[in-house]
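1st attempt posting a full record on here, be nice pls
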Amino acid sequence: MLWPQVVKDRIKTGSDREIIHSYPYRSVCPSTVWSGLSQSAESDIFLAGYTNYFFWTQLPNFSGLLREKVAAGCRVRFLLGDPEGEVTRQREVIEDVALSVSTRIRMALGELSKLGPLDGLEARYSAPEDAVNHVSLSVFRFDSDALVTPHLARLVGHDSPLLHLRRQGDGGMFSRFAEHAEELWSRAIPVEPR
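the predicted structure (as tokens):
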């Protein structure tokens, strides 16, 4: 009778089985997790963080990886906050850090513009009515895996917690977060090439 309870206590069941790992801070998630998920994605990479700039600072040759993924038929999407938007300005006051939200967005836009137009790579700004929902939750999806950061009150993204989720079926946590990001994408505004 002892072993069945021990096994039950160690095996994930129900909705928590989609949680692969949790981190108290996004910054403690190893870069190998980010690079491994980016490299293994085959059909869909959807980066729905408000700034997304850190991919180029954390992952070596991230632009080269994006080119490879798109060339192999992987759809790559970036959902960004509007650097000129009201929510962006409000968030900058809240965070009160030297590397402002609008600067971080512009860093990502600059890196994306260096890639030039690529079929399969798309970037959009969240719609003004959705920006407050976007800035408070980042969803980074790599096929059936997602890294999700619910942003805490006055903290920047790297200081907020992160969940690593893996899709196990419909209606779970992965699906709920993925659907949230897709809803924001459906109303988002295309980023005009610079």
